Amino acid sequence: MRAICTLLAIMICGLPATAQEATFSTRQLTPETALKAAQRALTNCRTSGYQVGVAIVDRGGVLQVLLRDRFAGPHTVEVAINKAWTAVSFRQDTMTLDRSSQPGQPAAPIRHFSRVTVMGGGIRRGGAPPLSRVPL
User: Fold this and answer.
1) Which CATH superfamily is domain 31-135 in?
2) How far apart are CA 17 and CA 19, in angstroms?
3) pLDDT digits (tens, 9 = 90+) for 34-89
4) Could you give the C-alpha distances from 108 to 78, 90, 104, in angstroms and in order?
5) For residues 86 and 122, is the Cβ–Cβ distance under 8 A?
6) Rounded CA gap, 76 and 87, in Å?
């Protein structure tokens, strides 16, 4: 009986430490900051002569901001979102992923996943959320 009580005491005392280790914190951009980043990307693309769709997703790939320039094609909405999602899902920019997933490469099968968009423009910027710019 004494052994059972000792075992229970050890288990109960160990619970707070286990619970603490089972959680973590992440940093997220505010909607205002994400909007400013998207606006800067849109302005930079306009300056370069491109009409684009710009998407910013959070760490989980959920859309935070979507901007589409007035003459950007209708396809830019879906492509921008999917490129940003691809960058966060695979933790690399989509141009790098394009090269590593060419036919015959080990990552080639990812091209068959429905949302994966492997073409330049999906950018993962360090701790910042993924950003995608899709030209006409």
Assistant:
1) Haem-degrading domain (3.30.450.150)
2) 5
3) 999 999 999 999 999 999 999 999 999 999 999 999 999 999 999 999 999 999 99
4) 22, 13, 7
5) yes
6) 16
Strand partners, 53: 68, 134
Rounded Cα distance between 76 and 89, Å, is 19
Helix (H, G, I), strand (E, B) or coil at 81: helix
Residues in the chain: 136
The two tokens of residue 101 are 């997933």
Q: Identify the helix (H) or strand (E) that includes residue 7.
A: helix 2-21
Sign of dihedral through CA atoms 57, 58, 62, 63? Answer: negative
Domain locations in the chain? 31-135
Q: From CA 34, how far away is CA 22, in angstroms rounded?
A: 29
Nearest CA among 47, 51, 55, 61 for reference residue 90: 61
Q: State the pLDDT confidence band at 136, using cuts at 50, 70 and 90.
A: very low
Q: What is the pLDDT of residues 96-108, one digit of tens each?
A: 999 999 999 999 9
3-state secondary structure of 78: helix
Count the neighbouring beta carbons within 10 Å of the beta carbon of residue 33. 15
